[in-house]
Specification:
This protein is α/β, with parallel strands linked by helices. It has one domain: 3-Layer(aba) Sandwich (Rossmann fold). 47% of the residues lie in helices and 16% in strands. The protein contains 8 helices and 5 strands, in the order βαβαβαβαβαααα. The longest helix has 12 residues. It is globular, with a radius of gyration of 16 Å.
Length: 170
């Protein structure tokens, strides 16, 4: 009988109760070997454990949301990262994908969706919500940008560094 290799998933969230809850939920599926840590220790745990996938909440009390992802992908370029966060997808989804994340999912989604997204990314795909796909498609069609679109928001137009400073200002 052939045993397939389990997908090693590391969950990194600034709240340990959330990380542990996700670990318990995802561990119910025997195809996955799941561990959890805080966002603060994500880099050292990735190096120590060598996961196949990282579920990362880029929301960080210290700011630098995109910077956290950039630092991880700079050191572990082949790591499949799913950004799993409560941050506004219209502001963050495109930015995280541009940096190298393989997916963006909000914490408002149902557990079934999370499992579907994990499988999609594990198989080499990418994921954003239909809402983000529609916004991106509308933006692509409407060149020059439509002033009434969500992308005309000042926050969306900020550079990654400007967004980090904005986050720190609260």
């Amino acid at each position: 009988m052939k045993h397939s290799k389990k997908l090693k998933i590391l969950i990194a969230d600034q709240y340990s109760i959330v990380a542990e809850g996700l670990r318990l939920l995802i561990s119910k599926d025997t195809r996955y070997e799941v561990t959890a840590t805080s966002t603060e220790y994500a880099l050292s745990e990735i190096e120590r454990q060598g996961p196949d996938m990282l579920l990362l909440d880029i929301c960080n009390a210290k700011g630098g949301s995109i910077g956290v992802l950039q630092n991880i992908l700079c050191r572990f370029a082949k790591l499949k990262v799913l950004v799993f966060t409560a941050l506004v997808e219209e502001v963050y989804a495109q930015r995280t994908l541009a940096v190298g994340a393989k997916g963006f999912l909000t914490k408002a989604e149902a557990p079934e969706v999370l499992f579907q997204v994990i499988e999609t990314i594990a198989k080499g795909g990418m994921y954003v919500s239909e809402r983000v796909r529609n916004i991106a498609f509308a933006d692509w069609i409407a060149r020059p940008p439509n002033p009434s679109s969500l992308h005309s928001s000042l926050v969306v137009k900020l550079s990654n560094r400007e967004l980090e400073v904005f986050e720190l200002l609260g």
